[in-house]
User: Fold this.
Amino acid sequence: MHTMKIYTTYFANLRHLPASVTPICIALYPPKGTVIAKYPALAPTPDILREYKASAGMDEKDRQARYIKRYYQEVLSRLSPRQVIADLKQLSQNQDIALVCFEKSQDFCHRHLALSW
Assistant:
């Protein structure tokens, strides 16, 4: 039995993803024309995203801490990890997956929070 591996990547890097890895969008607003599986339950809420963008001039650590707190409280705490894994397995037909969003690999992004969760 295959144990599904979960990776992360960003939209601009999709062309480098191995064919054996199924990309799954967890962005709130995916780019137009992007045709990949979507799992909106892991996306940040519009309000979380709006607040983060509006706080661009603030201290980055405080900004990220607020985002993380809200993402865990308002998104992840309402989900069952087992159900999410089951859903992702079904979406990928039991193949390895990559959670996809916009930020580059080294940048702050909720997909890293979702992966560690």
Notes: The helical segments are 46-54, 60-74, 81-92, 110-116.
